[in-house]
Specification:
By secondary structure, this protein is mainly beta. The protein has a single domain, classed as Calycin beta-barrel core domain (Lipocalin). The protein contains no helices and six strands. It has a six-stranded antiparallel β-sheet, with no helix packed on it.
Length: about 90
């Protein structure tokens, strides 16, 4: 089993990011916490400065939460979802 995980990606809105385990953490008990280490923006992108993600698998559910910070706006909950096996 891996003891660390990372994520990189880009969006159609012009944001690229590289995420690493939050606080140097690891995958633990079905939970992955990731924090942005780099956020790069196209000139037309929203001024995002930080992202944090939590991905959690418990029983028959998989959940996802995203927190976002922008210029002048502290980190706060942005979106989340849960998938449940039918």
């Amino acid at each position: 089993m891996r003891d660390s995980v990372g994520l990189d990606g880009g969006t159609a809105t012009g944001r690229g990011e590289l995420d690493a385990p939050a606080d140097g953490g690891a995958v633990d008990d079905g939970v992955i916490d990731l924090s942005s280490t780099v956020v790069s923006l196209a000139p037309t992108a929203s001024p995002v400065t930080e992202l944090r993600r939590r991905i959690q698998g418990r029983g028959e559910e998989l959940s996802f939460e995203l927190e976002t910070a922008m210029e002048g706006v502290e980190l706060r909950w942005h979106v989340g979802s849960t998938l449940a096996r039918a």
